[in-house]
Amino acid sequence: MNPARRALSLHARQLIAASLGLVAFLGLTGIALDKAFQSSLVNNMEARMERYALAIWDEVNFDRNGRLQTANIDNLPDARFNNFRSGLYAQLDSAGGGWQSESVKLFSLPKPPELRIGTSEFTGPIILPIGEDASIKAYRYTAVKQLDDSPAITLRIYESEEEIFKQIAEYRKSLWGYLGIAGILLVLVQIAILRWSLQPLRMLETDMKALQDGRQQRLDRIYPNELRPISGSINALINSERSNLELSRNTLADLAHSLKTPLAVLQSEIENADDPASFKGEVYTQVHRMNDIVSYQLARASRSGHALYSAPVDVLPHAENIVQSLEKIYQMRGVLCEFDVDDKAQFSGEPGDLQELLGNFLENAFKWAEHRVLLTVKPIYEPAARRPGLYLCIEDDGKGIAPEDIPKILQRGVRGDERVHGHGIGMAIVQDIIRSYNGELSVDRSQELGGARFSIRLPCLS
What we know:
It is a single chain. The model is unreliable at about 415-425 (pLDDT under 50). The chain folds into three domains: about 50-165, Beta-Lactamase (2-Layer Sandwich); about 235-305; about 315-460, 2-Layer Sandwich (Heat Shock Protein 90). It has nine helices and 14 strands. It has a five-stranded antiparallel sheet. Strands 9-11-12-14-13 form a five-stranded mixed sheet, with helices on one face. The protein is rod-shaped, with a radius of gyration of 50 Å. By secondary structure, the protein is an alpha+beta fold. α7 (about 350-370) packs antiparallel against α9 (about 425-435). A hairpin with a 2-residue loop joins β3 (about 90-95) and β4.
């Protein structure tokens, strides 16, 4: 495809499609009305010629000898019967004589096919010769009748279709003129409707350009229902990218801060290096420490953040694997974990994030529990949600956490008990993960077991 070639806009596509449909509709409507009008004219002509025939029949008489009396046939229903080549002609034929209208002079009407007495026929258009070098298209009405015991009479009436053509031409001129005006008005109305209906898309386009130019931070406008999934996904992508950027900055800041102390120690050793063996050992120790710091920060950065459209992950298998490992580690203390996990519970994110959440909270629960740990996992449903949310709750029967200590343990680098081994960073990691999923973390006392209770609510995806 030529990269310079631009695709038609949605407005142009809909306008072209609707205009083609409108033209086709108006064209078919015009053709149908034209055919109906022609059929109506022909039907009216047939009814009119039948009335002419009845009027002429009323004037027909025979004398005692069976001869046709034509003297009384002068009150004709249409003045054109009296004008030469007027386009309306009539003729009577019988064994007792014949008659023809004044319009049939100097030429004779063609003989029609034989019909039974009491029948009539309407045919046409046919070629009617009205002179040696002239002819017209006309419709013919033929009727055969018998008065009393008189001979059978055949009446023929011809009417030129020229009058029909004139009416059809005038009708078509008016019809297509009005349809053309209606088409133009409908196109204008259609353009206005399209502009109104596509206005949300133009608003979205304007907002996207503002995002690209940095004039706004997110899509805050209220869009129609059809566009809300798009705007929601774009906002989620923006939030994810900003979270990842913030995470990268925090990781670099943490890494720089963590490396300050080992570097300061190395600098001090370099300046005061009296014992080579001691200096070598200290350098090894600090390099090993820096390597651990870098490895930890890289691992943390790789675990944080999530893909917007990750496939749902079943919670139960991951929870069982983690609990089995922890029960082996804390086997000597006899700590066991009880499950209240819904089989339909799924985590809409990356498996590594789920393992980090379950691993940190369950390890803390096993660490502080006396004998029992309770894991509760339930899906959260909302009517308009695309995917359900998730509720995680980890409880233990330990001493619990005092309300005044809860804010402290949620801080980075702070441990609940300095006597227990750990870095005090697990809670910071899980809080970063929970924030990346727009979730909520609450810490209080377990009503059932008496120890600490950590509750996590991850919202539904709309």
